[in-house]
Design goal:
The structure is a homodimer of 329-residue chains.
Chain A lengths: L11 E5 L5 H9 L4 E5 L6 H17 L4 E3 L3 H9 L3 E7 L10 H8 L2 E5 L22 H13 L2 E3 L5 H10 L5 E2 L16 H9 L3 E4 L14 H15 L4 E3 L9 H9 L24 H10 L4 H19 L8
Parallel strand pairs in A: 1-2, 2-4, 3-4, 4-5, 5-6, 7-8, 8-9
Helix pairs in contact in A: 6-7, 10-11
């Protein structure tokens, strides 16, 4: 195995949902992560999301030596230059928008830059990958797509239903992201994305972040590097290596109650089947990102291809989608 | 025309959304209305619905000589005996339930007895009649049906999408209501209900409340009594006269801003096409209900059939659906 690449590689993790503290931020620094997309809402209303955002902004302020708030690609580049990690704030649900088209602009002004259209259940925007049927984007959902485009917020389809995903890709004026999911052909679960969604996403300039959450891996955390590597090689062949990135779904230090709430929310009294996630031995924490870069080179990816997967592809995507001078900031 | 029937007829209006004040309550008394189903939420969250309910409960308290809060069929019978109008509280949207299965029980305890599954847009429960596609009940929606059944709350499908409606009728253990809509064959708009929904609703013991909101009438408020009468006769033939009731949709004294909000909510900046509703000259206000009873007899309905349409059919429906000794009251 070649030695880990030099410190100048850009590393982006397109999804983490850890219970953040200074120790975890130091882990990101150890991993040389220049940008991490952090989830600030799963099921939350507008009001509850404000509290989550307040908590994240407070964490960023009190750890300004390690992290900085990302509102633009320039902020990511600044984070990298200053040896810090840029924190990109996002939602895994349109729930914070409630039924109010104006709330997208309000959350944009607060510095949120990524909105997944649905979490695990149907909402007022569209359908999730876990519903038995998917009618595509609702009337409100179509307006939300236009609003996110106009504001320069990224649309995320990782947990979204297949038909809603295809309609969103088609309708969006900007490329859309699948920040954290694998191909369904790699492991056949609803949370992984089917060929038509992967292809359409890439064809419109989107990026797919491969994911190491046990649920989306064959054999869970036991998925070994050769298996994952072969998936990466095939996915790069399928949609183009420039459309592949990483979105780990790391949920570090999260207590079991939180993980149970992710699945069951308040919508059901039935406990949903969730184990506490373990992580593959070849990427146990964000501190191991540089070693992953070395593995990509060993797998046969060229230097520029490997740099693309590790972060440059996400940077290009963000540059296309974010408006550097957003009307509301 | 025969003279209006005697004061002993039970009159139920299965939907009104007026801006209530004492003058309007006196109008209900003039019309000898023993029960009116009053909308307390259209787009509102749980929090905002609490305020609406507080307002209605306050109105009921301060006009206790005219009205009383209906939690059971016994309350309707008591209202009738005491010469008052029973106020049945309901929602035209599942929005007050938010994403929390426990909120149904909380609103039941507050005395709410009717929940329409969706208003005009798709939500987390199902699809509305105005969406271009309808995937049926969501995962949460199926749990909501069970919860409403268990609590003894009526399910209303007046604005609900066709497929969601059929699935709700099929899944519900109790009959369901279409409190305020007409057959689509009478006037072909999405808000009116198609044959399969009307038939399935009746086959499971439900009741359809014919409606005089201009939007659901051919020629709007210009729809004359012979037209409406012929619709009633044909509908009674189609689904059985015992499944026909009245749900006027009276929106008295509501300002234009409120009516615009009903359509546009906060989900769109585009004004939705809403005129201020006018009402047919043969039923201009709830005070005219006794004359309507006379018209039904003139139309050829028997005494018991006409009494059924005017209120007894709703009373039977409520008796089947409400649990007189609700676990939460």
């Amino acid at each position: 195995m070649t030695s880990p690449p030099a410190d100048d590689w850009l590393i982006v993790d397109a999804l983490e949902l850890s219970r953040w503290d200074r120790e975890l931020l130091l882990e990101l620094r150890e991993g040389n992560v220049s940008c991490v997309h952090v989830t600030c809402a799963f099921w939350e209303s507008a009001r509850d999301t404000l509290s989550r955002l307040g908590q994240m902004l407070s964490l960023i302020r009190t750890n300004a030596d390690l992290v900085t708030h990302v509102r633009s690609v320039a902020d990511i580049e600044n984070a990298r230059r200053s040896g810090r990690t840029g924190i990109l704030l996002g939602f895994q649900n349109a729930s914070p928008l409630e039924d109010d088209i104006e709330l997208a602009g309000a959350f944009h002004a607060l510095g949120v830059r990524v909105v997944q259209l649905t979490y695990n259940n149907q909402n007022h925007v569209g359908s999730s990958c876990y519903e038995s049927a998917d009618a595509g984007l609702s009337r409100f959902g179509r307006l939300v797509i236009g609003e996110l485009n106009e504001l320069g917020m990224a649309i995320d389809l990782s947990h979204v239903g297949d038909r809603t995903s295809l309609e969103a890709i088609e309708l969006s004026q900007a490329p859309v992201a699948i920040t954290h999911a694998n191909p369904r052909w790699f492991h056949d679960v609803p949370r992984n994305r089917p060929d038509d969604v992967l292809r359409a996403c890439a064809a419109r300039g989107g990026v797919v972040g491969v994911c190491i959450y046990p649920l989306v891996l064959p054999e869970g955390a036991g998925c070994d590097w050769p298996q994952f590597r072969d998936m990466l090689l095939r996915l790069a062949d399928q949609i183009g290596v420039e459309h592949v990135g990483i979105g780990t779904d790391f949920a570090r230090k999260q207590p079991a109650e939180f993980l149970a709430w992710l699945r069951a929310g308040r919508w059901t009294r039935q406990p949903q089947d969730v184990g506490e996630p373990a992580w593959p031995e070849w990427l146990p924490t964000p501190a191991a990102f540089p070693q992953l870069a070395g593995r990509l080179l060993d797998a046969g990816f060229s230097d520029s291809e490997a740099r693309g997967i590790m972060g440059e592809n996400w940077l290009r995507f963000f540059r296309t989608v974010f408006q550097e001078e957003g009307a509301c900031t």
